[in-house]
């Protein structure tokens, strides 16, 4: 296969891998009833006027299956961390005892579990759309190469390779979603 086609396929594969990585990150943020530090990833705290990720102003740890603790490195950061968690609207109320902040995860109701499954499926659909978009871009590049004199057989093989790559990554999305749905629905 010509070098240009190899490059198109390699770029597509890298982009699809990034889409899967992004999906994994987003699925970690969806809580499944167990306390994980990933639940509060993405929350930003006002640290002396600078928006700073919460994990850079304190130590986040899992106390037990339903409790997260945040130990700020500076005591005066307790209020800003508490405000940031409330403002993030993640459904958790911080408990501030003057030294650490505790986040208690309430048990999930059946209805809330179904909402979380829908949220996970929505993230999966976004990933599938991204992967299909990558496929479309690759196919357009392959068609341009064909117009510039590449043989039809080589072009057809390259299109088949891109389609197989797409099918593989769509299957990975479905696998991740199945795992997450099982995790969420397990009581």
Q: Could you characterize the architecture of this molecule?
A:
The chain is an alpha+beta fold. The chain has two domains: 3-29 and 109-185, Topoisomerase I, Chain A, domain 4 (Orthogonal Bundle); 37-104, 2-Layer Sandwich (Gyrase A, domain 2), CATH 3.30.1360. The protein is built from four helices and six strands; from the N terminus they run αββββαββαα. The strands form two sheets. It has a four-stranded antiparallel β-sheet with strand order 3-4-6-5, with helices on one face. A two-stranded antiparallel ribbon has the order 1-2. The termini are far apart.
What's the number of domains?
Answer: 2
Structural class by secondary-structure content? alpha+beta
Q: Give the helix tally.
A: 4
The sequence of SSEs as H and E is HEEEEHEEHH
Number of distinct beta strands: 6
Share of helix among residues? 55-70%
CATH topology label of the largest domain = Topoisomerase I, Chain A, domain 4
Strand order of the largest sheet: 3-4-6-5
Give the percentage of residues in beta strands: 5-15%
**What is the end-to-end distance?**
51 Å
Query: How confident overall, as mean pLDDT?
Result: 88
Task: Determine Rg (CA atoms, Å).
Answer: 22 Å
